[in-house]
Queue: 2 jobs
Job 1
Amino acid sequence: MNDKQLIKDAKLCTRWALALTFILIFAFPGVMFVTGYNYSLQFFQGWTYLAFIWLVTAGIYTAVRPWVEYFLEKKRSENV
Amino acid sequence: MLSTSTGYLILFIFGSFFTILTIVMQRRRKTAMTAEQFSTAGRNVGVGLASASIIAAWTWAATLMMSSSTGFQYGISGPYWYAAGACIQVLLFAIVAIHLKRKAPKAHTFLEFIGKRFDKKNHKLMMVFALMTNIIVTSMVILGGAIALNSLTGMNIYIAAFLIPLTFTIYTMIGGLKASFIADYLNTVMIFVILTIFAAAVYMQFGVQTVYEGLRSLPESQQMLTMGSIPGLLFGMINIIGNFGTVFVDQSYWQRAIASKDSAASKAYIYGGIAWFSIPFAIATFLGVTAAGLGLNVGDPDASAPLMAAHVLGTVGSILFLVMLFMAVMSTGAAELTAITNIIVTDIYRKSINPLASSAKTLKVSRIVTLSFGLAMGVFSVLLFSIGIGLGFVYMAMGIFVSGAVIPLTIGLLWKRATNNGCFWGALLGMVSGVTVWNVSAYVMHGAINVESLGHLHSMLFGNLTVFIVSGVISIGHALMSNEQFDFEAMKDSFKSFDDEQEELIVVAKKEVV
């Protein structure tokens, strides 16, 4: 991989890492803390659904992606 | 509660399974294992496997036990602060990972980079920090596993602490980093499956409304259903600061960047971080918060998750929880062990003891170091137990000991103006002042310096904050004042793989013969 591509990747991942950090540590909890919002039943329900959906999606991603990469790599090496 | 023999059986089954799997994989390999392969897994790992491995390395026994404990104690803010407070370090690590790939493409450890970027004293100091991090994390992993085995099966806690490292030491010794990656993948997938089973079972058995009503009726209900919980926030702050050290100064995370393809390194940390978030967030919500909402009789909040697991699914729940916890212990343990081995072999053995060691000799030394350290960690964990230091204490105190190196290390990698003296004194005085403030505040607020007073949230927070402030001010301040500049491009070619070094040695030897 050439240096130009690595620099481009570095810029992109820096933006993502900083943006996600800002949202997770300052934006969302900041608003919730300042307002002192008490969860309603509906909000709590949404919160638990979010935890569940995030878990299942992350699990599927983690389980499947290495296999996809493995087969793509195999196909590529066979073509070469 | 499960029987003691179940505990031994789980240790035996998983230890043997991964050892046999590693042996089979080794036999199927077309080429012989080299020292380079052992420590870098060929530098060819894709995004998927690397992110699974990052998730596994960051899913400690404490992730499963402590996150649920925060959910049980602080309500919904606990899971969030645990997950977010420990996820951002992995996300931000993506930035330094890709810079290491650019500036030191053939390095084996981050200390190798430090050794060339800074002087000898910095290299030695950072090595102390790195080894301390690995030792603290490994002992915490073993402590968590032993506590769970003891509370769920009644197994002797000292025997458990000694046997746990054996299970991951043997397969790591045989297969090196690649074996650790494969085991990480299997362990991570299993953890996700078991967690999904727990989440679905809790939801179907109790429903959200029962838990919600239960939380509202608790005496401390004002903090259970809001992110505005002050203890939750304090824990969040300690969690954020403390965990920087255990990611940025831990060779096992640098190792995953080193082992990844160039194109995969940074993405793996972003994807891995986002996916990892769901583990403590879900387990603490479904087992910790739910246990509080259902009014479960939990003596020690650290045991809320296994008790809730047993409450939901009975004996099956206990076994599933134990298996999940044990998988977390194994993968983190193996990651830490390969990290320690890499540091000792690359930065001590090959740098100072035997720089001309052949690949075969280096591989042999690597395996001996892996085995010795694995066994030594078992003994060390037994010692920690015997002096009364537990999981929660080590988890919250670790940042004070290891985070001093975070800012010096990061600016050393990213900033050409970072200086030798600034980074050295920043890291050293950061730690010293952090420990001092931690002890002084424990004494001032609680009248004594002991495990109990040192374990309080406020003294932990002051100690953790001081480390960051002092190390940051000294290392950045000195850099700004001194106006030195470092040429990263010049150091790029000074890193060589073990195999390249070996070839160079052969060429030199041939020339000498001629």
Job 2
Amino acid sequence: MSDTLTSKLNPLSLPLRQQLGLLALALLGLTPFWMGFLYAGDQGLLHIRTITIAMFIGMFAMSWDSVSGYTGQISFGHAVFFAIGGYGSALLNLGWGVPPVAAVALGTVLAAVAGLLIGVPALRLEGPYLSLVTLVAPLILLQIFIFRSDVFGGELGISNPDPLVSTSGFAQETYVFFYVAFALFVAILAVLLAVTRSDAGSVLTAIREDEDAVAASGLNPAKFKTFAFVLSASVGGLAGAVFVHTPMASPTPSQLLAQTVSIEVIIAAVLGGMGTIVGAALGGMFLSVFRSQLSNVGLTVPGLDVSVGDLDLVIFAVVTLIILFALPGGVLRWGLVAGRKLIGADSAAADGGRTPVEQTLEKFREFFRGGRDD
Amino acid sequence: MVNEGSQNNDGRCSGNEPEGDRNIVSDVRANADRRTFLKGTGAVGLAASAGCLGGSSSGDAPSGTFTVGVLTSHTGTENPIGNSIARSAELAAEELNADGGVLGNDVEVSVKTTNEQPQRGKTKYEELTVSEDVDFTTGVFTSEVLLNIMDSIASQQKVHMTAGAATPEASTMLTEDYEQYKYWFRTGPVNAHFLGANMVDFAEANFSDMGWDSVYVLTEDYTWTEPVDEVLRNQLADAGVEVAGMKRYAGETSDFSTIYDQVEASGADAAFVAMAHSGSTAIVQYAKQQRPFAFGGIHVPMQLPSYWSLVNGACAYGITQNTATPESEITEKTVPYAEAYNEKVGKYPVYTGYIAYDAVKQYAAAAESADSRNPDDIVSELESSSFTGTAGTLRYYGQDEEYPHDIVYDETGENGVNPLWLQWKPNEDGDGGSQTAIYPDNLASGSYESPPWV
């Protein structure tokens, strides 16, 4: 047993793709150092902050992927959990003086409870009901925030709570919160990979592929879906809670609750590779960094008299659409397949080659057609 | 003038918080100073070990070229609010350079767009202050972006002079922690509380002559109108105006017929409004239906000098509050600035342009007067200065007043700024229309005319 564990933990005995993943993670962790060689002065600090924010977007995308990417139950409003975690933690800290670490923990619990409240009834329904419920949930929450703007600050949001770690000066602040984000990123990645690669993860994947078959085998799909949903809500709430305790974010609707946040997270996960966790993390980080870089492009779009930087969201969306058309399985899957071909280790897909996106779309089609053809 | 008629990602408006009873949002800001005692207790070694990058130069007085950092919403020519901020700051810099620069240094302007997104606004603010090490910053159109960079302003300790966002929350932060936030000033517009106060002052001075004895208050349901609503609710009746009704309507309203039915049924002489996003829909439908009541108040779209052609004259006889019109001689600088801007851009500026231009010029004057580029020296200088800008006399409320570092609102216009009111009137030759200043009296180029169908 211990031999097995030792061999699993030994990087040299891991498959090549996992070795490359660890190498990428190590490079990410060393960002402050290699950024120093690439950029002189304070420019490097700003890039480190960009990557810090990107890691949080990656965490949000992983949170979404752990439920929607695996079960095929698309959540259109995952921002609701980021907001509950973030706002909950901020209000506890600011209103009641709860220390940041405890506030983050309580904010995470609040998000988990919200996951239970929304997920249990919605997930027991078939078809796209979860999508419809989650589509409406953040809209309701936003209206509550606006209606009770005395508590939630309305569209302006609330002020920044205490930082998770106290720092002195811009440079120190940048380094410290980079590693706060990195530690959380690695922890969430590890937990979600462990869960989705476990037997429970296999059941979740099976639910996406054929929920009826899972039920027929004596397993309760609703139980597994609820578990995934609450786990996902907790992870999203945790990331949202920590995010607002960094100097890079504030508890505001546009950063945590707006519909665009939910949509961007879906795009990120699908772009990176739905149902892979790692792909979602990569997609989230790419989305954030790519948009940030686009915003610095000063070129003017001919005929529109608008700079490329002003159109970052539009350009990002167009590029995303092109990538999705070209690589419907996501960039990570494409990379793995291309890599296998390169080293001559190509293998056939066990599921007939359908991507999670195609499987999920098929489920939605079945629902709107009024059931299966067979 | 007025608030930020802006649209956020989620399709809603950035607005302003009520300045009245302090709520949890405000109360919690008092906790911000708890951070200070924690400083220095965490992860110093980590930062030191990773200290291959230089730290920021926060608090140090820059040297060499005098650089102005501008945060604007969008800069496309079709976005007059953002474009006015950017081009006006550049115009001010050009004029300063032609006059020998500031403290013997050339002036440069660096413009960054926020796209009205708080996260992006913060990143761009850091690029300006950390990477580019600008002397000071101005602009910021939306309140949401402004509040998101307040902590960064405190951290970077560089003077910021807001030109656009109207939330009173920003000055409230100074009330609670002056030392931390003292680098923030609002050059304009007057904050959302005073936007309402100015409506009351206008009503008191003019309504009886205008025949507006009774008004129906219509405000769009965005946060920025909350302080306006509160002031109107509490003070309009005291000004001798009969309030026939008050309604906050959904900002997404596309059919005003029912609302206008209510105004009509109330017998009000006029709809007294506060509108930004929904303003064009409201005025076009009002004009088409030729309702038997007059229309005006704070109507952001009507402030645009080119608005008549944009709505095919639907704004005829409407009135709105504004910072200035291109022809209004608020000070000796107003018209020359508007003409210079028109020459540079090919259009006249909107209210944010006057304010951004004033901010750059006032900051430069303060640096010259203090003979220093040190932010603390500039803060002291600005606090005590009285500067003649294009929008009026620029003075700031003091540390112990209700809205520290907010531009002083003064109904006389002698010791602060006083918004002017204009009416859109058809040209005599029947070709188009123009903005006619109607109040205050010393700036009025005409008097109010009731719509012919009323």
